[in-house]
Amino acid sequence: MKRVFSGVQPTGNIHIGNYLGALKQFVELQEEMDCVYCIVDLHSITVPQDPKELRKNSLDVAALYLAIGLDAKKSIIFLQSCVPAHAELAWILMCNTYTGELSRMTQFKDKSREKESAPAGLFTYPVLMAADILLYDTDVVPVGNDQKQHLELTRDIAIRINNKYGKTFVVPEYRGMKVGARVMALDDPNAKMSKSAENIHSRISLLDTPEKIKKSIMKSTTDSDGIIGFDIDQKPGVSNLISIYSAFSGSSIKDIENKYVGSGYGTFKNDLVEIINSAIGPIQQRFNDIRHSQELLTILKDGQERAAFRAEVTLSRVKERFGLGL
Ligand code: ATP
Ligand code: LTN
Predict the structure, then answer these.
(1) Which ligand number lies closest to the CA of residue 177?
(2) Spatial distance between the Cα atoms of 300 and 313, rounded to a whole number of angstroms
(3) Which of 106, 129, 139, 219 is most buried, by the most CB atoms less than 10 A from its CB?
(4) DSSP state of 96
């Protein structure tokens, strides 16, 4: 059975970009593959975090994992900082990664641009991600398009070590969604939808109220020609809304265009609000049921044990190859 690994940072409310680009696939994959899903809290401290908020956000992501349909009997769900092997392998990988490679990572360039000085962890972040993936002999990594470059680096590191030390790692592959791999910000269709953007109407979070969702969609940037047509270059805002509509409803882009010939943006946006609400409503219901339950902690502890066991097997193999330990 193929092995899957992915992670989400507990840095704020999960938005529909995270959901359509990555999380939705997690659920589909657990039916056919051996899946490990992590809440990558060590990654999130590459930017300052309030400790209380961080723990709350970690549990929120865990509850959302379950609310969207992940099943702890099928998938391993755990918190990254509970399994020390991640940080340990990251060090070993770091010694086999070049600073030149890390300086080319666009996420690092973006996140460090406005800072006077960036923490070293922000720079080495992709190596910790490589460690996450390689620890579980992962074949497939479902992530949004923005993580493709990090996955390429992970592959390069794995291949480099395999060549030098003999077959040590499985070389993983990227798995993206056709629609939703890159959901754009509602207020600026040239930027990706992001948890950290200042304007809350730039995104729709999975825990937003129906009123907030309506407001954000109604305010979203379109254009002045009034035609519901897909054209990323000429009509990026409308195209983004059509993609979101398509990903949530399952209708093809062509069918959506045909359905709204002669309609205005108002009608289209109203329908989109309905579609989003009906997809998100049941998720919120399940989230509320589980978020403060004992079951959530039991699932995370059980996930931690199962993940640590697998991670130890890989880490021992790596140490043995490198001549580390007794
Ligand atoms: P953000 O930049 O929005 O704060 P993030 O990119 O830092 O989020 P995560 O929360 O770890 O990171 O992302 C979880 C998953 O969601 C990743 O697989 C990522 O590729 C995907 N993702 C993030 N933003 C988008 C987007 N706008 N469209 C599609 N997928 C996305
Ligand atoms: N870097 C990713 C989060 C992440 C991840 C991973 C994704 C950390 N480790 C391992 C897939 C596999 C992000 O910012 N979205």
Answers:
(1) 1
(2) 20
(3) 129
(4) T
* CATH number assigned to the domain comprising residue 247: 1.10.240.10
Question: Ligand 1 centroid vs 26 CA: distance in angstroms?
Answer: 14
**What are phi and psi for residue 175, nearest 5 degrees?**
-135, 115
Q: What percent of the chain has a predicted confidence (pLDDT) above 90?
A: 92
At 93, is the pLDDT very low, low, confident or very high (cuts 50, 70, 90)?
A: very high
Q: Whose Cα sits closest to atom 4 in ligand 2?
A: 7
Question: Residue 300 maps to which CATH number?
Answer: 3.40.50.620
Question: What size, in residues, is the chain?
Answer: 326
Q: Does position 177 have pLDDT exceeding 90, yes or no?
A: no
Residue 113: the pLDDT is 85
250: left (phi over 0), alpha (psi -120 to 50) or beta: left
Q: Is there a single domain that holds both residue 230 and residue 90?
A: no
Q: Which of 86, 147, 174 to mutate to test the pocket of ligand 2 (most atoms within 8 A of CB)?
A: 147
Q: Which residues contact 170 (CB under 8 A, 6 or more apart)?
A: 3, 134, 137, 138, 139, 158
Ligand 1 in reach of 148 Cβ (< 6 A): no
Same domain, 128 and 98: yes
| Rounded distance from Cα 318 to ligand 1 centre (Å) | 30
What secondary structure does DSSP assign to 224-289, as a single string?
SS-----BTTTBHHHHHHHHHHHHHH---HHHHHHHTTT--HHHHHHHHHHHHHHHHHHHHHHHHH
Point out the ligand nearest to the CA of residue 40: 2
Ligand 2 mean position to 147 CA, how many Å?
Answer: 7
Check whether residue 69 and residue 133 sit in a common domain.
yes
Total structural domains in the chain? Answer: 2
Q: Is 194 in the pocket of ligand 1 (CB under 6 A)?
A: yes
Which of 11, 18, 37, 200 has most ligand 1 atoms within 8 Å of CB, for mutation? 18
Q: Would 58 be classed as within a structural domain?
A: yes
For the question of whether the overall pTM of this predicted structure is more than 0.90, the answer is yes
